[in-house]
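Listing S7. Sequence submitted for prediction.
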Amino acid sequence: MTEKELKAAFQALSPEEKARFLEIENREWLESLEYVLKVEGPERVEELLRLLDEYLFRHGVYPANRLSTPYLNTLPKEKEPPYPGDLELERRIANILRWNVAMMVTRANKKADGIGGHIATYASIAELYEVGFNHFFRGPEAGLDRDLVFFQGHASPGNYARAFLEGRLKEEDLENFRREVHPPVPGGRGLSSYPHPWLMPDFWEFPTVSMGFGPIQAIYQARFMRYLEDRGLKPKSSAKVWAFLGDGEHDEPETVGALHLAAREGLDNLIFVVNCNLQRLDGPVRGNSKVIQELERLYRGAGWHVIKVVWGSAWDELLAKDKEGHLLRRFEALVDGESQRYAAFGGKELRERFFNTPELKKLIEGMTDEELTELTRSRGGHDLVKIYAAYKAAVEHKGSPVVILACTIKGYGMGPSVMAKNVAHQVKKLTEEDLKEARRFLGIPVPEEKLEELPYYHPGPDSPEVKYLLERRKALGGFVPERRVRFKGGLEVPDEAFFREFYEGSGGREISTTMAFVRILAKLLRHPAVGKYIVPIVPDEARTFGMEALIAQVGIYSPQGQLYIPVDAGTLTAYKESREGQILEEGITEAGAMADFIAAGTAYAHWGIPTIPFLITYSMFGLQRIGDLVWAAADQRTRGFFLGATAGRTTLAGEGLQHQDGQSHVYALAAPNLLAYDPAFAYEFAVILEDGLRRMYGKGEDVFYYITIENENYVHPPMPEPREKVKEGILKGLYLFRAGEGKGPKVQLFGTGPILNEALKAQELLAQYGVVAEVWSATSYKALYYDAIEAEREARLLGKPRKPYVVEALEGHEGPIVAATDYLKALPNLIRGYLDRPFAVLGTDGFGRSDTREALRDFFEVDARHIAYTALALLHGEGKVTKRTLNQARKDLGLKLEEVPPHRR
């Protein structure tokens, strides 16, 4: 019987007959295996299983329980679909782009040596991009079906080269590559070094450098798309998230840290394309092994569907002839360092070192060195047909995320001193020899006498190449990348009346600023206009922050819903998971939580949905731990509120050195569009929140907020009068909380967060020595500092002198200043240079300790006693307090000052 007849006969069996047949078949296989194991031993069994695996893999069958498959393309030639495009035109377009990238970077470095840029990365990834551009990436006109594409950062010149052919950039723009401040060529815009939405807000959507940023962001963007759909904020769509990344990039923890999340949540809207050019900055990624095989094990183990695109079409005939598996076994023995040599040195090297057995030599009988050189360059990642087959399989795959591992050559086509050489990443200028070889290899019609001019090549707006790529982009919904902000503001945000109850204090009850935040958040979640847009994000500390009631109120998002009855079912704080849940409970991953924050905080631009993220985490594990991702959030104009909880080095009692934060506000200085506050009371927090919602979602400003909240309980007073002036001071960073009374030497006390209470106690202590102290709440030293440096600049450069706000606020309030903070002394010292009076700073420089708040504040010299004594010392320096009074105060206050300062202990 023929194979067709056998299949038909099997299908004709009844279910009962099939079951009996399969039972007999299974028994026969197992009996045969048992015989081999007993008679020939386990080694023979392993050999048979290997041979079975080889047979299966050659026929496109990949057992799910295998983490590694042979070093072959996942999709055999017979499973490749017909190519839907014009192969020759697309190859020409890719090569034109390679040429223009090389010219752009070389010209930039000829004009300004050391300006940098990368030639080799785009040369390796060009075809991987082009198949996407011509057949898969859906642009902004596709609406909710548009794709989000994370481009490999070091290949960004390729995006500019393509935009040049598309007519979006001019030659003058290319001439200004990496010259953003003073573009040397008139009529052109400066082009950023890498994808930076802050610098090119109409072009780039996602920053993907430093390496590792793209992958983790892509995962959480794909997840957030599902979140929006499951919660009914966005209609379901076929949109995909594509992320292009490097093989060496997988050494970054952010690249691999969230792979399990993507698999666990079944994100089949996510596709990674790994550009495996086998090289990193200094040399091979895995010279002594195979990085593609390593990555396959990693992704398969994490639950991803893996598609390998290793070999190009030139290998198909040899693989078909290799009936005995000799070539396959040689592939298995191949290491990347060896593979790199073949790409660098060509066919002669391949003949001598790769085809090094009688069986392999017979396989290539009659082949010339030139034909073997073609084999060395025939990598799957440069073969449009192989790439298309992989991409098509990826977009059609259901149930899990997909990774495509595509083998390429770094510096492909860029000449003998670049292609596959260890120096490829560092090459910024092509030599004359490289230029000539690149022109020949890429087929660029530039006369030899013009080569020294390093000319760009544009085939013309009416050329087949340009017409083709424009037609393809039109069919797929417009240009990519292109950043369109779909929500520009205008959300009906809560007004002052909504927050007014929080202006009235805690009614004599002791609460923390964290409790105040949770109460405001709970009310916001019920707000008719913004409630549905609130996205609480917690990395597994909700109970620590007193948020457990919110879990029962709005639920934790889970795409599977809740498949179990929680142990606390029936209680007011039951653990509730739901497909419509609003809270993103991330587990112990601050990086993942920040990637959530970015996805939610940029949905206004990508989808026109003004989601409002509230990320709350231990402040010590925020800006210090994930500062790079915060910087990326700033770059892409993320909006939202980042809450640093359990803040303050002396306020978080007991936790000790690794948990007590005294520096996050110093780190917050770095991002220019991050507004940073340390409120002491509920009304301060409410004012800041009201301002943030108005600015970010009412007016559409590209800022975000960092607010520290603490776990110390104390009575929160009502907002002082006049309230409008107080509100202005809260937002500008400083206001008078309590004036002094009586006559006597005057001093001004600044307090931040809970340390404001220590300043209030110091006010009372100072009164015992006849000193009139006024107490100020310093809510934001960053705001005071930015205002001061702006005032200084306006006077210096613009001839518009004005007083900094901090100086203006202090007018009429004489006396030296003592600024006490739970953070580094560097923070208040930011404003020292703008003040015309003695200024002493008390802060918490040094390592934290495990102890009570009282002990810690004594240790770091920031408690009421130290504030009062420091004020007296300043007044003594002005001759307003006697030495006798100062010594008596030291004795009264019980200060035992150590010779070694806290930061040296």
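Caption to Listing S7: primary sequence and predicted structure tokens for the chain studied. The radius of gyration is 33 Å. The chain has three domains: 87-312+379-444+457-475, 496-715, 734-904.
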